[in-house]
Amino acid sequence: MKAIDDLVRQPGAWLDVSGGAGAVVSSRVRLARNIDRRPFPGWAGEEESLRVWNEMTALLAGLPALNSHLVAEMPSLTRVDREVLVERHIISRELAEKNAGSGVVFRRDESISVMVNEEDHLRIQAMRPGLDLEGLWRTVDALDTEIERSVTYAFSPRLGYLTACPTNVGTGIRASVMMHLPGLVLMNEIGPVIKGIGKIGLAVRGLWGEGTEAAGNMFQLSNQTTLGEKEETLISRLAQIVTEVGEHEANARARMMQQKEASLRNHIGRAYGILMHAYMLSSKETLDMLSALRLGVEMELLGDWKVADVNALFLSVQPGHLQKAGGKAMGSDKRDFARARTVRERLAAIRSGRGGK
Amino acid sequence: MKAIDDLVRQPGAWLDVSGGAGAVVSSRVRLARNIDRRPFPGWAGEEESLRVWNEMTALLAGLPALNSHLVAEMPSLTRVDREVLVERHIISRELAEKNAGSGVVFRRDESISVMVNEEDHLRIQAMRPGLDLEGLWRTVDALDTEIERSVTYAFSPRLGYLTACPTNVGTGIRASVMMHLPGLVLMNEIGPVIKGIGKIGLAVRGLWGEGTEAAGNMFQLSNQTTLGEKEETLISRLAQIVTEVGEHEANARARMMQQKEASLRNHIGRAYGILMHAYMLSSKETLDMLSALRLGVEMELLGDWKVADVNALFLSVQPGHLQKAGGKAMGSDKRDFARARTVRERLAAIRSGRGGK
After folding, report:
1. Does A305 touch chain B (CB under 8 A)?
2. CATH among 3.90.226.10, 2.30.110.10, 3.30.590.10, 3.90.180.10 for B2-253
3. DSSP-assigned letters across all residues of A297-310
4. Mutation choice for B interface testing from A257, A259, A275, A279 by most B CBs within 10 A
């Protein structure tokens, strides 16, 4: 799809390339909604799915909040296109597996996307760099209100919004914050932090990979409960925990600098050296080293490099983006080769633009 | 010892810095000799050892072959000085552990050294870059003849020269060649090669480390037998095997380039990147990466870098040399730090002199 080609040339809404730094990378809020008296997508046949798809895309296309948007039904997209949308967090991995009648309507600036016929009829989401859950909540709430003018939602006065999966019933809200936590990982303190967060009803998972094995030390914190509390309460509790985790991270970095500066510089220097000179790089290794680079930039151990340079690379090295940039589907070995070339060339270009490390 | 300070500023006799390349690094020939009717060093008391030391150093100092020489008795040397001499192959690790009456007389250009009261009264050795066992044999043979004008050697008409250890009895000769075999190691073919060499009565060991675990992929091939054959026969057989192993190595490198160029470039690039940017480097890791660098230079995968640049580093990163350069004894952690700094600075200086990789 031609529009996806254009997409990969822009930086992505959630990975700030304007220079945002620190533990918080980006925030996202999504609402799960279903149309009253219509079968959930998992129970609908193709005809019914297409009916919902046509009704919803017509409705969404007319909303001012979604001006300058793209509409993409899954069957119109190649495997690689779908992968690119997943990597950019515009669609979920589940939606990428769907067929006729499932798709997405999203703003070209990627700040808002609405998935149609994923697990629910509608998944309305907004994302942006940094910590701004309240702003995002206002955005999706407004969009939700606009949609509700034309659609009667499946709603129970007792339970709230009804959803395909019981974990979403109630507010149907999921708020999440992506955090970069290399300090806690390197100081072996991430385990207790994750455990502590779990105890107060929030979920933590690696953004790429699982649990404490998170590739690139990127973690996503989100609410677990959607029932029995107001959206504002859920959001402000998450924001508070994110702020606390950010303080733990800053503290871990400061102690690391005091207690093992040589080992920290070694970690960052090696990552830089390998990224600059390797000819094959796996996805996990690259994300881990980009994490070290991002840490090095933020701790001012890497000259005048900018966080924005590194952030953009986190996206470019993903399998879908690599294949899109290469203009063809590639197997794992070919991707490892293309990934190393991409990283080498980008870093060299940045370095020569800056006059060396 | 002041003279050792000067020594570390020169490149070392056996690691060619004039540009020699290929699998063969250097050759060495040594003879074990003992004085007739005098107890072997292991059985001599301090008084007897000192008598031998004084007689032998007086004799050796007067020989034309040893003009511009240094004399160093072990007790006059610090731990670090001894380590430097071991690393430069001027003395053995065994001699470095000895006390009063044991030491070495060696040419300042390091091409010839005579150890006194190591395991035998005299260990006469010559070394030089490349493969030249016959030339070295002529050198030590001539020196041996000169010494024999003043000394009656312990000699049995039936067995030949008598030595402290039975494995040296006969000719007392040990010829060895240092080979750099990264191609055979990377292609997993070093095991069978070592096994094959063992079967024909030669010994192979890692120069640093053991067996196939040789740090830096540096191997030493030497004769096992000293009895029942003429020196020339032993030497020419070793030279022939060295030539064959060199051909195997060249073959392995050519196949590696054909069959897995990307993986080869990856191996070399990563080594270069880590050496350029690490802040802590262990000895084993550094030697392994210098090996990759040497391979890269020889296979012309590293621009206009020269083998000589890399060869010199093999010596500079050894513990003794690092401590000598740092002007003080250092523990393992401090050495890892100093080693990384030395490598970074040297490579950066070479690169800037050459206008980049």
Report:
1. no
2. 3.30.590.10
3. HHTT-STT--HHHH
4. A279
